[in-house]
Amino acid sequence: MTPPPELLDAWNLRPQAELGGRLNRHWQVWNGQESAVLRRWQGSEAQVTYELNVLKLIADTGLNLPFLRCGPQVLDGVCWSLHDVVPGDPAPREDAHARGRWLAELHERWRELPLPAARPNWRGALEVLADAGADALLDAHEAARPADVRLYRWHLHRARRAVAELRPGPRPRRVIHGDFTPWNLRVQGGVWTGLLDFEFARPADPLEDFALAWRGVHDDVVRSYAAHTPLTGEALALLTPLWWAHLLGGALHHLERGVRDDGWTARKLLVRSPLMGELAAPYPG
Questions:
Q1: Which residues belong to any copy of the Aminoglycoside phosphotransferase domain (predicted)?
Q2: Residue 1 predicted with pLDDT over 80
């Protein structure tokens, strides 16, 4: 799909290049004499409003952000908006140590922000693990997808047991980014200066920010974070159950809607790290 000509005319835009996107689609455009980014939203109106409100909430926290220029505007049932370009290059993928330090810095920057409402249609990681409906859903799909369901059920039960044995106390809630990955960071001269993609931003336990930053494999993210902001034994023990809960939440959502991914969820559930402790035991199949 290309941007509608009437929108380009109304906002004085000239397309430069398609930038892609996992769910939302993006184009680099000229807005008069300035470069900007045009977004085609995938989510509901509530999701659009939520994400734009998050951008307002974090506006004064010292980062370059994709601030809103025009919109949002709905044309033929599709929502569009125009945003500032966030300068810089993606963070080096191989430098997990820097990302861990920057994640700690982000949590420090956002520590005192007022908490927004819960993100629409989003469940916290511990809610995913505690949901009794997950078992019924897995049972209902086991005949059609036995290998996937066995994998999901095994990790679900292991994560539940780990949390039950840990008996965590009340956990803090902060605004988190939710997708602190190299391609969503912007770096200039080795300095982290900008942040993109707020599709997963929400109030949550800050440990949930490790899900896509650590992914069960980038251990230096955790070590570097802990060198800046110490992690308790309880926090370290929760990392794996929360990571698996993130994966299982998506897997259960897909099962409910009859959707199959490309095997990404299964591959990530099978990843093991020394930081997982007893949960690093291999899946027996």
A1: 20-220
A2: no
